[in-house]
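Side project, low priority. Logging it here so it doesn't get lost.
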Amino acid sequence: MMHYLNVLFFDIYPYLCGTVFLAGSWLRYDYGQYSWRASSSQMLDKKGMRVGSNLFHIGILGIFFGHLFGLLTPHWMYEPFLAIATKQKLAMGAGGVFGLMTLAGGFLLLKRRLLNPRIRATSTTADVVILAILLMQCILGLTSIFFSLHHLDGKDMMKLVGWAQTIVTFRGGASQWLEGVEWIYRVHLVLGMTIFLVFPFTRLVHVWSAPVEYFTRRYQVVRARR
């Protein structure tokens, strides 16, 4: 039974989530552009917004790129100058800092969304649920640090790296990498993939519209009327 569950969640589920993530985002952009927005509530009430939003977004960006490069960078690229054990300690330290930032900021934003009458009135169920899921994922990630303290050699981390790289390179048998891995890492992976699954149906789609062109745009010329 466990074998079939492992195959389902760690061999099949990743591709299901990835397909829905990409296809769903494209379809929503193509057919639902009026709903393609961050739905910012800053205009309704700025109290607590700046601190909570900055902590949350800086933290979650640090976590995302940390996972992206940490899991998908081939071992041979850093092997000559970075030991596996050192990489794990760096990941634990950086993940702890960014995780606490995300948790603190997310809690402030969730509290604001639930307890502020004006913001609560304009919030959808999906707004509250996705924020709660992100906080749950953050708590799981922070908790996993304590499990990592029991094996600082980095071997379990490299199992997770092997699983992720097997998935993105479309090789079979990815679930075999997770044999002997603690349950909390498995739950963390499943919930993380579920976030990609529900991504197209929430306000998270505004991530695709990050204003990166702002840094390369031409300066706007303003002339005074004579």
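Brief comment: The chain has a mean pLDDT of 90.
Revisit when time allows.
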